Amino acid sequence: MDFKKFKYVSLILGVLITLLLAGCGDKEEGTDSESGSTDSNGEVDYSEAVDYTIIGIEPGAGISVTTEAAIEEYDSLQGWNVELSSTGAMMTELDNAIRNEEPIVITGWNPHWMFAAHPDMKYLDDPLEIYGGEESIHSMSRLGFEEEQPEAYKMIEQFEWNVEDMEEIMYEAEETGDDINQIAAQWVEDNEDRVSAWSEGVEDVDGVEVELVSTPWDSERAASGVLKAAMEQKGFDVSVTEVDVAIVFESLATGDADATLAAWLPITHREFYETYQDDIVDMGPNLVGAKIGLVVPEYMDIDSIEDLNPNN
To answer: Which residues of 240-264 are buried (b: 16+ CB within 10 A; e: fewer)?
Structure first.
């Protein structure tokens, strides 16, 4: 090879090597990857990666309303959007994101089987306490229910269980595809010692009708299913009507339903409770240790809502 040809080949090889190195550099620093955008320091910009969007559930749900408030209050969430659809749609997006180890921010709550299915998830710290701290799920009734049906009132008032109980039923229903009411009824048969505490001092009845009103969520379906099965052992004829959360409180206030097990306080359903509190009876918590907030997979290297970035 003569010298001129050698110089030409060397020049071409030099250009190709330069382009190759530049491409590698772009990939290393880049703006896009499977786990999201990165900044000049090589840190993932999770906010851009999720397109400044929180994946939520049904419009009007307590956590949906609270998340809209959080977007208003947090500087780090300015310009963000909450995508409201359904719990099932949210879970589908969560499953896909975790399967591919991609960033995602969802509205999460305990009790829910999502934490049994995906134990490596975490709540983001909430310094402004928009989502509150520990929540309780309360039983409530219409005015006059205790006087008219004292045995039913007493059993509902004595009903209490824990987060693990509820999530056990929810997760089994999700895993097996069996009807959650059937699983709840089996749980009652398997936990007679727990059930006997709810019925202590309650006289047997013969077909006394009780209408429970609830929300169409598996957590509340589990609670209503368990109590329905337990009350039917005492001779009650229990029906459960599923409605939007606003209708739960309205139906108690108007006397169209007898009781509910589905009131999340002090934050999630505060607006509805404050609207109707003079026309309903708070029977106290049936479950403590509930929680709501923004949830992300553990592989996302953020710990607080304030670690997110506004959409400027």
So the answer is: bebbebbbbbbbbbeeebbbbbbbb
pLDDT attached to residue 32: 42
- Cα-Cα-Cα-Cα torsion 166, 171, 172, 173, nearest 10 degrees, comes to 90
Residues of the chain with pLDDT under 70: 1-42
For the record, the structure tokens of 263 come out as 């009131």
Residue 35 phi, psi dihedral angles, 5° rounding: -100, 5
Number of neighbours of residue 184 by Cβ within 10 angstroms = 24
The reported pLDDT for the residue numbered 43 is 77
pLDDT at 153: 98
Where does the chain have alpha helices with state H?
Answer: 3-29, 46-49, 62-73, 87-99, 114-117, 145-148, 150-158, 163-176, 180-190, 192-198, 218-233, 245-253, 270-276
